[in-house]
Amino acid sequence: MSKRNELDKATPAQAENGLSRRRFMGAAALAGVAGATGLGSAVMSRESWAAAAQEARNKAHVGPGELDEYYGFWSGGHQGEVRVLGVPSMRELMRIPVFNVDSATGWGITNESKEILGGDRQYLNGDCHHPHMSMDDGRYDGKYLFINDKANSRIARIRMDIMKTDKITHIPNVQAIHGLRLQKVPRTKYVFCNAEFVIPHPNDGSDFSLENSYTMFTAVNADTMEVAWQVIVDGNLDNTDADYTGRYAASTCYNSEKAVDLAGTMRNDRDWVVVFNVDRIEAAIEAGNFKTLGDSEVPVVDGRGDTEVTRYIPIPKNPHGLNTSPDGKYFIANGKLSPTASVIQIDKLDDLFDNKIELRDTVVAEPELGLGPLHTTFDGRGNAYTTLFIDSQVCKWNIADAIKSYNGEDVNYIRQKLDVHYQPGHNHASLTESRDADGKWLVVLSKFSKDRFLPVGPLHPENDQLIDISGEEMKLVHDGPAFAEPHDCILVRRDQIKTKKIYDRDDAYFASCREQAEKDGVSLESANEVIRDGNKVRVYMTSVAPQYGMTEFKVKEGDEVTVYVTNLDTIEDVTHGFCMVNHGVSMEISPQQTASVTFTAGKPGVYWYYCNWFCHALHMEMGGRMLVEKA
């Protein structure tokens, strides 16, 4: 009988004694580790475990004035933002608005942000899942972070030097961009995007059947943020990742049944991983073997069924996460409704596409890990860490031993199981998506917190837990409450990110302000004046803490007013704000930045504007008046 089968058969007496099936499995796995490492044949005592856990917590402590070793970038879920944390302290450093409206910075309010959000196409919500850092030869280059919006079928790019969103792209022909990963080698040329839901084409209300419905895999040019090409697939795409050769990307795919109901999507015992041959897709487009859909000019290649550009590798069951090992050898697909993870050997894919081997010949291991495997991450030492949603655990297992077991050897590939709190989704180890995976820290993003924090009403925070994986055993060191609803995160060494302390005056972020000022014949660095163009009024002003260069201006009721503020301070961290009372207007202006906002002047009267970012001991006195006359 296999080790797994033995563990599944915990007796009622064991359960009555408090040794539940889950605890029994975890204890047995830990005992195996202890025996293998010469620590003894028994589970660690309570005292020794407590000492080890305290040691791990000490490693996570970052004292006042000290800096973290890693930047952590968290997706903000249905907040539509990205959150920046320091790791291992887990201190929140910044929130980067992306698809949301943020009154503190003016994102979604300023002209510059509206231009990026798409003007009339702007939505008020977003659903961010997967943040990923641009790469050069499989290593983070610190230039850009990319993030998806499942709610409105968009992706965004964030400049790391200023940590501001600079591009947003609407993906045509599809709905619900879920999985997002980047080409790793030779550099991030493409952003790969999975559209989850099938829709009819054309989607104009003329046909609601499934016969002409499908979804697509999309590649976006990372430099221009223009859509490069799309591939039609069978099934619903879930998560995706890329290899370390630049030739392949792969995506988990569920609903091979082509159903629209819950039960129907679970009928088949196997769905698939779709592998995309990037070189062949580019060659097909170069040869003109594509079509376009509707008014989109994006080349669309058909990758359904038996094609030159895709392969569908059968795996169990409703698979979810898809993760590439940092040594570049394996794609690992997590079974979700199967207790298994499927290990696909990447160097077999050339033979697969040349029809020299069968689809399942690429699967070299399928270890049973526990109930509800969702996502896998890696420590760079040959071990994988998989979240088990149903078991509320992280399972540490050895890939090489799993392959040996799959080939019939009697070997226990499970190294340890650790309880987490509760129902984990994504997990992420330090630098794990790059060649530099260092196996120091693991973040587990748990969907439920239940009893871990002070009660705050019916809506609970989630729980982001930090685990020390630098040794043989995982050690939980931190609980971090998180508001709705981070899905995933990445950890990047702090030396890989280079940020500006103040803006350059020629920064592209406010290029449109410079263009308008040039048309108006004014200098942003010195102008404090009002320019009227019919019922359009442009107000130029500077700011140096603690005062605006203009403390009063006149407009007429109903005028379209655009205010340009240039912060002339050159001192780091002296950010100014501009808030016009009773007009729904506020924005941030960081040192040497120009920002602008447009609004309609209200009823006749006096309206104060003030600095809403604390900048000086006389901050409260920094203000001015807009005088609105009758039209």
Concise account of the structure shown:
By secondary structure, the chain is mostly beta strands.
Number of distinct beta strands: 40
In percent, how much strand structure appears in the residues?
35-45%
User: pLDDT average, as an integer?
Assistant: 92
Structural class: mainly beta
User: Largest sheet, described in full?
Assistant: 6 strands, mixed
Assign a percent range to the helix content. Answer: 10-25%
Low-confidence stretches: 1-42
The termini sit apart by: 88 Å
Helical run tally: 9
| Shape, per Cα inertia axes | globular
Taking all Cα atoms into account, the compactness measure Rg is 27 Å
Binding site for Cu cation Z4: 487
Protein name: Nitrous-oxide reductase
Binding site for Cu cation Z2: 129, 178
Pathway: Nitrogen metabolism; nitrate reduction (denitrification); dinitrogen from nitrate: step 4/4
Walkthrough of the structure:
- Residues 532-631 form the Cytochrome oxidase subunit II copper A binding domain.
- There is one protein chain.
- This protein is mainly β and 631 residues long.
- It has 9 helices and 40 strands.
- Strands 8, 9, 10, 11, 12 and 16 form a 6-stranded mixed sheet that branches. Strands 31, 32, 33, 35 and 38 form a 5-stranded mixed sheet that branches. Strands 34-40-39-36-37 form a 5-stranded mixed sheet, with no helix packed on it.
- A hairpin with a 5-residue loop joins strand 11 (213-221) and strand 12.
- The model is unreliable at 1-42 (pLDDT under 50).
